[in-house]
Amino acid sequence: MVGMHIDILTLFPNMFSGPFADSIVKRAIDRDLIDIKIHNLRDWGQGKHKVVDDYPFGGGTGMVMKPEPLFEAVEAIKEDSGSLYLPVILLTPQGRVFNQRIAAELAALERFILICGHYEGIDERVREHLVTDEISIGDYILTGGEIAAMVIVDAAVRLLPGVLGSEDSAADDSHASGLLEYSQYTRPQAYRGLEVPEVLLSGNHARIAKWRREQSIMRTLKRRPDLLEKANLSSEEREMISELITEKG
Ligand code: 6GU
């Protein structure tokens, strides 16, 4: 039994051999927790030259992805997936901006299709009548949607049950609680005269948990104060933050 299915439609299938052939995503594939199918969009290209793009009506620079290969490719994948409702997600800088919440949303799906956008754009009829969602990975422009697809797959897959060991659970991640992660140390206890904080050697688990929580909050306040508004904080913690802010100011 395979868990989640992801179909990726791309003009550059070779780009995916690296990231999915190693590490945690590879292990998840090998253990049948996910099935990732990379489809070459050119297989649905038109005519002898397998054309997938054309000039924009109305003129202008750059090429536009033609509608036919995309519609036909998605229809072929839908046929293979039976009656299941299939979200069709276009990777484009015009999409909603990806974050941990959207990663969890995708991790809850049984199957979805990712379309890697290219060229100057994509025929608007694809957006309006084929695509059900559009996602961007941030406010900058990439040469295509492939790297964005890899980012999204990686973030979603590691949230699936059984993908990470219980050793490195996703629950402790930066962003899972809405806070950045606390500072970590490992052996040696002193390195070039730099000591590990005493509390971590105390064996007092309650004290350690309290220290880590404070570290998380202070780091978030310093680096990403925008995250604090939505973070899961007790009223005592909110009070502590107000005091830290007034001390600073
Ligand atoms: Cl999804 N695609 C491209 N081409 N550029 C991006 C992006 C996606 N997300 C951020 N920049």
Quick structural summary:
This protein is an alpha/beta fold and 249 residues long.
Q: What would CATH call the homologous superfamily of the largest domain?
A: SPOUT methyltransferase, trefoil knot domain
Write down the CATH class of the largest domain: Alpha Beta
**First-last Cα distance:** 57 Å
Number of strands: 10
Mean pLDDT: 94
Radius of gyration: 23 Å
Query: Quick one: overall form?
Result: elongated
Q: What molecules are bound to this protein?
A: 6-chloroguanine
In sequence order, what are the helices and strands, one letter per element? EHHEEEHEHEEHEHEEHHH
Could you say which structural class the secondary elements and strand pairing correspond to?
A: alpha/beta
Query: How many structural domains?
Result: 2
Strand order, sheet with most strands: 2-1-6-5-8
Quaternary structure annotation = single chain
State the CATH topology of the largest domain: Alpha/beta knot
List keywords for this structure.
single chain, 249 residues, alpha/beta, Alpha/beta knot, Trp Operon Repressor, Chain A, five-stranded parallel sheet, three-stranded mixed sheet, 9 helices, 10 strands, 36% helix, binds 6-chloroguanine
Explained architecture:
This protein is α/β, with parallel strands linked by helices and 249 residues long. The chain folds into two domains: 4-157, Alpha/beta knot (3-Layer(aba) Sandwich); 190-248, Trp Operon Repressor, Chain A (Orthogonal Bundle), CATH 1.10.1270.20. It has nine helices and ten strands. The strands form three sheets. The chain has a five-stranded parallel sheet with strand order 2-1-6-5-8, with helices on both faces. The longest helix is centred in the last third of the chain and has 19 residues, at 205-223. The mean pLDDT is 94. The protein binds 6-chloroguanine (6GU). Residues 91-93, 117, 136-138, 140-142, 144-145, 148 line the site of 6-chloroguanine.
